[in-house]
Amino acid sequence: MRASEVTDGIFRLSANIGSDILFEGIWPLPHGAAMNSYIVKGREVAIVDGVCGWDGVPETLYAQMEQIGVDVKDIRYVIINHTEPDHTGWLKSFQEITRDFEVVITQKGLDLAKAFYSLDVKFRTVASGDGIDLGNGRKLVFEETPNVHWPDTMVTFEPSTGTLMPCDAFGTFGAIGEAPCDDQLDESQLRFFEMEALRYYANIVARFSPSVIRAIEKVKGLDVRIIAPGHGPIWRKDPRRIVRLYERFAAFAKGPAEPIVTVLWGTMYGNTGQAVPPVVDGIVSEGVEAVVHQAPQTHISDILASAWKSTGIVLAMPTYEYKMFPPMAMVVDELGRKSVKGKLALRLGSFGWSGGAQAELDEIIERHKMGWRFLEQVEFKGAASAEQLELLYLRGKELARQVKEAALPVG
Ligand SMILES: Cc1cc2nc3c(=O)[nH]c(=O)nc-3n(C[C@H](O)[C@H](O)[C@H](O)COP(=O)(O)O)c2cc1C
Ligand SMILES: [Fe+2]
Ligand SMILES: [Fe+2]
Question: How many CB atoms lie within 10 A of CB 58?
């Protein structure tokens, strides 16, 4: 991987993590992910964000610095927008090379950095509006954006070039080759990164959507011409494109989203399973897209992305030991943890003697204050009858009609 120029005096360094890694120990990366770091060169040199500390990764950063004529020891300021180890892990290695640098960080970040790393260097705490003059016309201005994605987060802005370095905000999954900027990517590649942005958003940032909205409002007060995030492509041809996408994703937090229904189902012996196709047929008959995922076969990462962009959700599962079929209980619980709220929903499923799945579902929805609006459930003893299958088709239709009405207008 080579360093690349973002704009005059600002360079991107980067390391990709591969498909063998689970991001945050949970999220698969079938297409990898990029950790971006930025060098800003004035008379003094600053590095904004960094990379993780895994074996060999900091060294790739140092090699890229060399390519742009920066000696590791030239770095005067290390700007930590966000203390999470995917951006700060390299500091342990860096501290072994030099201690003649200052860490620039928010007050909350300082507290976290001290807890994660015993860095024996100078710290400078900054707040919104503070800045550093690097000389030669390059300045860095900081704006706190708490809870995108940790409480410590801020963004760094370089006014003369209009470059915003917002770390996790406006990020995407997906590894990046030698062409990191939107003007170097064709439309299908940009669409790929937009898909990866959805999964990144739903997996990592969704829970913090109100903070994302606040951060976007703050950023709008700056004359941003380039967005250079900590993950994913750099947006310099059309920075509004990723801002609009993030605004849309953040808006989905209220519930209404795309005119799509995500159908989540699990079954032991097929009784619940055979009741799913009529529901899907009913949904599709209304011209609404149904995205079907089986639990536990589909990874929760994909389920979250699908649920986040859907206005409607179907949950189909039988009763298992007086509760929900466990993989579906885990799915609904995870949707609650990630604040998938305000969806239109339908639950169906089979039981043998006592039932119990519905009561547990009600409990999870209530516990996470998910506020889903359910159509009347369809539960059946053993196999669903022909009448029940017909009823399910009609419920699918009804759900789709409601979804069409509630979905956000195409953005
Ligand atoms: C391990 C196991 C546990 C079950 N626990 C219950 C239960 O607590 N209450 C109940 O009403 N039925 C229970 N059942 C019966 C199932 O809900 C019933 O067989 C249902 O038709 C299974 O649906 P499926 O074919 O979609 O897996 C259990 C079945 C199995 C195999
Ligand atoms: Fe993060
Ligand atoms: Fe990150």
Answer: 23
